[in-house]
User: What shape does this take?
Amino acid sequence: MSILVDKNTRLLVHGITGREGAFHTEQMVAYGTNVVGGVTPGKGGEWVGKIPVFDTAKAAVEVTGANCSIIYVPASGTPDAIYEAADAGVPLIVAITEGVPILDMIQVRAFLDQKGVRLIGPNCPGLLTPGEAKVGIMPGHIAKPGNVGVVSRSGTLTYEVVYALTNHGMGQTTCVGIGGDPINGTSFVDVLGMFENDPATEKVVLIGEIGGTDEEKAARFIAENMTKPVVSFIAGRTAPPGKRMGHAGAIVEGGAGTAEDKIRALEEVGVKVANHPEQIPELLAQL
Amino acid sequence: MKLHEYQSKFKFAEYGIPIPRGKVATTPNEAFSIAKELDSPVVVKAQVLVGGRGKAGGVKLARTPEEAEQHATAILSMSINGLQVKKVLIDPASEIDTEIYLGVTTDRAARRSVLIASAAGGVDIEEVAANTPEKIIRVHVDPFLGLRDYQARDIANDIGLPRQNWKQFMHIARSLHQCYEESDASLAEINPLVITKNGEMLALDGKIVLDDNALFRHNDLAEIRDTDEEAPAETQARQAGLSYVKLDGEIGCMVNGAGLAMATMDMTKLFGGSPANFLDIGGGAKSDKVAVALRIILADSNVKAILFNIFGGITRCDEVARGILAALAEVPTSVPMVVRLVGTNEEQGRAILADAKMITATTLAEAAQKAVDAARQNMEQVG
Assistant: This one.
């Protein structure tokens, strides 16, 4: 078992003929993901390897029965690609793209909430259910199947933790990158709830960072709703206030969103917080 | 990206928000002419992209054009919190009856734009929020309906605005929200919004912060960026597509990915050092970008050791290694370097750097420890 994606995922790639889209499609297929089609307006009827390209998401969904979309289009076109996938009836959309304007994301999220469509990202590495499906850009070889659920706001920091877990013989159910933007489709709380309900997930790793209050909300959720143990790492203890640390959402504003606040909130509800990412397997072993 | 006060207010004026009829001067002479033309007492206001200019003496009242010239001379030679003042705004002085606060920003938690208003204007709104939160009124804006008239009226009522000012206030609130949306701002604020002794409302001070991610559709705004708010190295990094923030420590960090870059900084502290910078080379960086990044780090004289932490996914370790060699060929240095390459093409990357006299590490903890030790030894040798 796993969450969000598995061997039944039928994936549609938006921007499949672009540089990033083509490269990662090849990687996802090589991993064993069931990529059923691609969308690039104006290139319908072409093929990328063995994958048919469609002009519109609507046509692609009708023909392929896709149940998941991944977005590799530039930031200026990402909101439209998300609306198009949602309108075509895709229930799960993963947006890798970085740099989507925040006012666009406010509308995107409000629209998807009305439609009941789940968005992962944007500005995220996507989803990886080891041995079943890779929907995104995470390097597949660092992960292996197991019982640890991983959720993170970051990309390479997630790889670092997953790599450490795998090296310690601790496999994963699903690795979820929710993205580094201030307004995204799926929060820590959403994913924690899914891991709690997933029979195969026995332990959860939550990787947070400065900015916003998503980790504090996660702490309350863990205290009130979770029976499974959670360990954590929070990046940005040395980040200065008022400066954006790469991710649009990683900023301490008006004294709020510091790493200390988040670590305190998590520790208060019994979550063990690692001093550095490589300590995570050690904390999991102690549970 | 931040706009100056004058840029913000002129933008507000395009939306019909009343502002003082002031002008910008870059010399004391110009300040004199503007004050003379305005034919009234004026306020000379430093235009810098940092807070605290009032306390620093960057805002002065002048009764005559001569006095305006004197103040401009003093203010234009000032540095405020490290930033040289290059422009002053000369506004006619207003007779103020009431000062209020009005702003629009993004509420991350609510995932909505929010109008914030307070009868306690003219002071730092974050202080008001911390000390007297009951004086702050918040109204969220539906992303599809926009700001409705009744919401603006609610705000006027809730901050106790006199009824004769409601109509004008509603116009200002709607205009400010429209300006915020159409500029893709993350903050548009009027502080203070005043009622003058004549009963007219006027935006005395203004501030706009733009969403950097939306600048691609606002070329006019992107062009007026004042790079003074950034350290020169930050401007250089931004233009090269790197994400760099200068810090005060002695260990230069070069990392791929923002979260991992923060974690790497934190690790230097955990092992007894402190980071000289945040630097994310991004995903899939080629060697030329890596070379620019290394030159930026080496230009910081505080740097006593450099820590490279690359977790190859899209980024290839051999590309990074080539970039390091390219930069070192141009800028020879004796600063010790610790390299950790993991992931895509790590073997090739390590082979490329084998002759470069670099300290290598396998784990992140080992890399951080070695960087801290190397920096300490380097400082002892110099000292």
Remarks:
- The domain at 231-382 of chain B is CATH 3.40.50.261 (Rossmann fold).
- The mean pLDDT of chain B is 93.
